[in-house]
Amino acid sequence: MKAHTILTVAMLVVMALGCKPSAETPKAEGAAFAPLTGRWARTDGGYMLMVHRVEADGKANVGYFNPNAIRVSQAQATAEGGVLKLFVELRDEGYPGCTYRLTYDKAKNQLFGVYYQAAQQQSYDIVFERAQ
Predict the structure, then answer these.
(1) Could you tell me which of 20, 43, 45, 107 has the fewest CB atoms within 10 Å of its CB?
(2) Are 130 and 110 in contact (CB under 8 A)?
(3) pTM of the predicted model, to two decimals?
């Protein structure tokens, strides 16, 4: 059987069985989280947050720099009552579980929230502005 014929038969079988895509297929980027993507500069220093993308389930691909790269162990976005939030955890030398709990301010196009410095066990109010 030629490859063309095999492909055609396979497509007909899938259509006849009404198969749906597997739940394991890659998730599309979450359009609701699009305002979070981009480069963000902390207003009080040389800290940079890079939100590369956010999946539909909120899992975020984030980079953090001070000015060198600091390992991000996890990042998760949520939408609570129409308000976008971003949680970022750092796990690197000098950053033993430091976290950001950020909220997106649409009117100001800023991320604001709390930075928890784990080694010092102190929290700081911070703001990130969108960087160009």
Answers:
(1) 107
(2) yes
(3) 0.77
The Cα–Cα gap between 58 and 42 comes to 22
- Nearest 5°: CA angle at 63, between 104 and 111? 15
The domains located in the chain, with CATH, are 26-130 (2.40.128.30)
pLDDT in tens, 91-103: 999 999 999 999 9
C-alpha neighbours within 13 Å on the C-beta side of residue 67: 2
Are residues 52 and 65 in contact, defined by beta-carbon separation less than 8 angstroms?
Answer: no
Contact indicator for 89, 102 with CB cutoff of 8 Å: no
Q: Sheet holding 83-92: strands in order across?
A: 69-70, 60-65, 48-54, 38-42, 122-130, 110-117, 95-105, 83-92, 72-80
